[in-house]
Fold each of these.
Amino acid sequence: MGGSISKREREVISSGKRRRRAATRGENEEREAMVLAWRKERKRLKEEVKRLRKKVKEKEQVEEWECVVVKQMILERALRDEAVERWKNLYLAIKNQLDDLIQTTYGEGLQWRPDEEGVKTIEELRQELEVKEETIGGLKERVALMEKQQYGNQREIDLLRQSSRIISSQGISKKEESSPSSRNLSMFRNTCVDRK
């Protein structure tokens, strides 16, 4: 029998191989299922870590904003307290001045009460003010009218100068016959030059 295997032994060997193959297939499938489950768990944990990091970041931002708001509130409170203190000091200074004024006016026996003479004086001053306002209004109107007349005079002088230049450029000379119109023109020139 040197090296031959019986049929029965072959069957036992092949059934053992089949069992091992089946066992390794089952183990492989089990390993693959474990790997797949591990990957899913890992992915889930990564997502949870991302979510938690995002929450932490948002919480940090909220805390930063809270710090900024608190600092701003403290600064505003300090400014408000400073303004209130200044107003208090101003109020006290005015109150003291008024108290001193009242004391000097009423405390020494000098009491000022508006009497008929004082009321008349106030009315007279009001009437005088109204008269002066009316006078100012009239003067303003006169100034406006004078400015308007000055503008008209300036314009007239400019027109006369232009006319003079035109006539002198046409070659009318003094040697030529002097007509009444040319005499008037020379008189007009002289008056325009004098007005300057």
Amino acid sequence: MTGNGVVERRMEKTVRKLIGDKVDCPFSVEPRTGRVQAGGAMEFCVAFQSQTVGDFCKLLTVNYETGESVHIKLHGTAGEANVYLEKNQIVIGDTFMGLKRESSFLIFNKTKHIVNFRWKRLPDPAHDNVEIERLKESFEMVKDLEMKKNVPIKQLCHVERNQHEIVCDRIYSDEIEALKQQELDFKDRNFILLPGFGEIWPDNWIEITVIFMPDKAQNFCVKAYCDILGAEHRIPLTITGVGQGPLLRLNVRSLDAGYIVAQAVHSYEIVVTNSGDIPGTVKFMPSCLSFGGKICCDPKKLHLNPDDYKTFLITFNSNTVGNFEENVKFLIEESHEVLQFMLK
């Protein structure tokens, strides 16, 4: 919020007006210095921008080079903008690895003003400052190393050493400024919020799209924070989703071999089907048998496209006489899910 003021000078000579450091936050003034002609006037603008809710009173001091001072009382009240999210939690259904699933929600602006919003990675400006300092330290180390290795540039006679240091300092200063915004904005390898920033018109709303792109077969949960102009605190949004691996299944859970002859080789066909939307690879997992004997599988590995099915040939033989139960296991490579059936 801004307001205009006028300084008049009723003297016969021109004087200089100084405002600069004579007003405290959340108020600011522009221009901070100026000249007032004899009998003339000068307009300046006072801005009020508070990061917290409450009433604020400050004094604006106008100092003249003649030693005179004028004190202006400033008063401002900051309130919470009526801007809110339709949902504070988004749950996205199971999604196959490598594919995308979308969900959406609204941000409502019930004020009479245009408000800006931006999705942040951290919950508040205090955490932002800590992260910025960490970035500065990291870049400062890189900058110091780069300044010391100016040999290639010097050999090519491009710049002298002191000029090289100036160039490096400027480059890394620009990099820090650019990286600040990139690092502090929300970003995640599995979730995207679109748009990531924008403005909402008075008494209006904007639709936000959440895109889920799992790269693993596991549960995912992240938090994003909506930084809204006019809101004292960032609004948290929790997003959850489940990554689904290839949907491969065996045609049996238990295989009863019945009475078999010791030392003889017995064969069984095991069918694997892919009823999901992405391809998958399943391989046999050899293991030591508690009953003794040996289980072999041909082939060792199968690759199945969606709606495909293929067959493993399992062979079993043992020199031991008696009842037996053995778990035969297979591994889905993409999701590390174990499939198994009982051979008895």
Amino acid sequence: MDDLEIVEIPEGLFSGLFNLGNLDFDKCNISVLPAGVFDGLVSLTVLDFSENPIGSLRADIFNGLAGLRALDIEDIGLTTIDENIFFNLTLLDVLSMENNRLTEIPATLFSRLEVLDQLLIFGNQLTQLPAGVFSNLTAITLLDFDANNLTSIPNGTFTGLINLEHLDFSDNPITNLQPDLFSNLTQIYFLDLSGMALQALPVDLFTDQESLEVLELDENPSLTELPFGVFRNLALLTDL
């Protein structure tokens, strides 16, 4: 029932829908989700209420959705998010929370999402990433947080992401990258560092990226020279 001019969801609207697997009401005009709106949806695996002017979410809104596999809360006007909101979503594969207005995220926000495969948080207003925010995402293959307001990426941000294949944090005003920032990201084949403010690249930045096929470095106007040997381990690279 997406793309309708629904402005309100009555309390209990979905009650009794025990077999419902997919619930999609994106691109409506809903501004409030009542308490317990998803209670009883024990079979739900896909939930999408993106592009609604909701603004905030209750901390317990997803508590009864332990079987959820895909959640899309893109472009709903979020400015803050509770650290425990995803606590019960331990089977989640895909989380889309891009194009909101988040300036920060709690360090433990994703700590229970150990089987998450894809995380999209691009197009927010994040100014920093808390230490260890991604550390439990050991199954993740795609991570995209481009187009935020990050000025640096702390060392250890990607530690433990041993299955990561696609990483994009382009279009952030980052000036420098630590030499071992990508250490142990041996499976990565796509890396987008474009549209930043990079001034230099450490010669050992890509030491472990032997699987890399696509590397985007364009639109870094302050990057005027590259150190000899910076690409020496990228034998599989097809697009630069």
Amino acid sequence: MKIIVICLVMVLLGLLAAGASFGAEATRAKADVIWVYQPGLFLPPTCVYPSTAASPLGLTAAGALLVLQLIILINTGCLGCKRRSPTQPNSNSNPNPNITARLCSGIASLTFAIALVMLLTGVALNDGKKNCYVVKPGVFAGAGVLCLATAALGIVSFITLESEKKGATPLTQGGIIEVGQPQFPPANGVKPSSLPA
């Protein structure tokens, strides 16, 4: 049940971030609606930007993306290196860590960083008061696609680590396989000393 709830939260945050990003793309300030006027002969031009919903939507997307990344890092550890539980021994519990989980977690961190920079840059340029810059088409939409990629990769990393943990054998958990005579005789009446070696 815990896995389903965490995955559902990741999906919802990813969809919220992507939806807000696509909404910001649709409502961003465009160059043809910005008013430029020259207040004086030696003064730089001043731009008047229309009020749009792009900045609040971009900030909402950035906030949802940040919470999503925190949930991914808490549940998968840094780059898929999940923290050791208190019941595991101090030795390295898995000498061959799952490369899929690490790779997905690393790429999710990269897509998170790029999407966050795109969103915050888009918000800053959308409300810019100097130099009359506007957000290029596709900045918020690209960030939205990266938000979806971050969520998907985080979910794959989390599920991979959880399935590895659930399907682990005693040998992969650092346990010891004991060899020797059985403590109780077999149910079919065969004596342990007559078993083939």
